[in-house]
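Please check the following for our workbook:

***
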Amino acid sequence: MRINELAERSGVSAATIKYYVREGLLRGGDRAGYNQVSYDESHLHRIRLLRALLGLGGLPVAAAKEVIAAVDDPERTVHSTLGEAQRAVSKTSVEQVLAVADELGHPDLLDMLEAYRAAARQLATLEVNWLGRTDDRDTLTERAVIGTILGDALLTAARREAQKQASATRFTTRNR
């Protein structure tokens, strides 16, 4: 397919596709003649992955480049690629979060840490089992990235829904 069809099918402008190629986020198309380039389904798939990383995942381009490089590196393990995705999403540690809570006068956030860790262990086991549903290294590596970055977005959205419900249940009186 030509760039205009790729742009139409992906929902990304031709200029953005060219930018992705220049930045090394997307491999160039195959020459199909003078001043013509042909793209295939793998380009479409990569653009969709990039839109997820940059859009929903909120990654800056530089972080997305590092994640994509990890996905494309056949020498990296899935565990290593998962680590790269995690670094791209957050550089915050549990200790930093608790220190800020303490500075703001809420040291009792620490009281919930074990419950957070238990929920996180349960979720991590679920996610790693989801990763293991395939033996294909490329699919497995991509799932590690998707599970981390989109998983964070999904967890945040689901948590907000649950907070809304819990708040409506807990604070239904006028004075609260």
